[in-house]
Write a structure and sequence with these properties.
five-stranded parallel β-sheet; binds adenosine monophosphate; 8 helices
Length: 214
């Protein structure tokens, strides 16, 4: 099993980068945020617990994250290649990932750290719109759809995530600084961290990541 991680503050462009990688390379995209939103939508036991944390922009407890990630890794086989997006977010989650990879004889190949200044993160998050049907990301200014409110790809309705409101955004950025930034030092020490300037155009970022994955 091989794994790569997309690490970065909310709005750094993890989801958009993941879309580009999946289109060009054989990686299963595991975004814990997407998995949790699905659980909330379906009203599952985990979804009911996660909902409040997500609305406040706080991290969902590690026990839940561990279970949802574990369930997705079961039966992947030794040739499986995973791209984690938004996971791990705490040192405890990174330990879980390392244990899991070790157990399956796999390795963590790269951790791509998408770095962007705070102002850019805020403007990206406030303008972000997502397709309700296919999940494609848009931005009202940077990646506008051809027709306002409508997905270019599938014609689905574009919506704004409830946690992309300014007050929640500020909390999510603070949570990232407090709880997730320590992972940067952790992965730097492990020699797997690749820093990427996330202010660059998404095509440049995707090309850089794909080059390193060759
Ligand atoms: P995201 O889509 O990655 O921005 O995640 C949206 C929300 O889901 C976050 O603000 C957290 O509440 C929750 N979440 C997603 N991934 C994790 C994780 N690995 N650990 C804890 N909470 C998470």
């Amino acid at each position: 099993m091989e794994a790569i991680v997309l690490l970065g503050a909310p709005g750094a462009g993890k989801g958009t980068t993941a879309e580009g990688i999946v289109a060009a390379a054989r990686y299963a995209h595991l975004a814990t945020g997407d998995m949790l939103r699905e659980a909330v939508k379906n009203g599952t036991e985990f979804g009911k617990v996660a909902d409040g944390f997500m609305k406040r922009g706080e991290l969902v407890p590690d026990e839940i994250i561990v279970k949802i990630v574990d369930a997705r890794l079961v039966g992947g086989g030794k040739d499986a290649r995973y791209m984690f997006d938004g996971f791990p977010r705490t040192l405890e989650q990174s330990r879980l990932l390392e244990a899991c990879l070790k157990q399956q004889g796999g390795s963590l190949k790269h951790v791509f750290f998408l770095e962007a200044p705070r102002d850019l993160l805020i403007s990206r998050l406030t303008g972000r719109r997502i397709c309700r049907s296919c999940g494609r990301n848009f931005h009202v200014v940077n990646i506008p759809p051809k027709k306002a409110g409508v997905c270019d790809l599938c014609g689905g309705e574009l919506y704004q995530r409830s946690d992309d409101q300014e007050s929640t955004i500020l909390n999510r950025l603070e949570v990232f600084r407090k709880q997730t930034e320590s992972l940067v030092a952790h992965y730097e020490r492990a020699g797997v961290l690749v820093k990427i300037d996330a202010a660059q155009h998404r095509d440049v970022i995707i090309a850089k990541v794909l080059e390193l994955l060759k």
